[in-house]
Amino acid sequence: NAFLIKEQKRVPITPEVITWKIVTDPERLMRRFEFKSRQRLIDFLGEVLEMENEMNHNAKITIDHMHIDIEVYTKSIDCVTELDLEYTQTVNQIYEDVSHYGYESK
Q1: 48, 61 in Cβ contact below 8 A?
Q2: pLDDT per 10-residue tile (average), the chain, 106 residues
Q3: Are 29 and 22 in contact (CB under 8 A)?
Q4: pTM here?
Q5: Helix, strand, or coil here: 84?
Q6: 9 burial level (CB within 10 Å; 0-12, 13-18, 19+)
Q7: What is the bridge-based pairing of β-strands 60-64 and 28-34?
Q8: What are the DSSP calls for 18-66, one per residue?
Q9: What is the Cα–Cα distance from 84 to 101, expressed in whole angstroms?
Q10: What is the pLDDT of residue 4?
């Protein structure tokens, strides 16, 4: 079973992160976000960066043409914490929101 640190105690990672893979060395959460348009990718990235500033928590973000990979963990203790779970839930909501943005056809 996958676990995370919470106030020095290990607790199970909850189902809300089901869309995120658990990766090791160091323990972190990772997800790929696919986009059908470059504009949606740009909008998503902008929203994520704004959220990171508000949370004061940053992930590794890799952009490759029409997808973005995000890896997040708490670097000070090299594992996943409650803050990372909050980060993943917020990013999932941003992805959902951006997928419903309306764009005018040119």
Answers
A1: yes
A2: 47 60 92 94 97 97 97 93 94 93 66
A3: yes
A4: 0.81
A5: helix
A6: exposed
A7: unpaired
A8: TTSEEETTTTEEEEEEE-SSHHHHHHHHHHHHHHHHHHT---EEEEETT
A9: 26
A10: 54
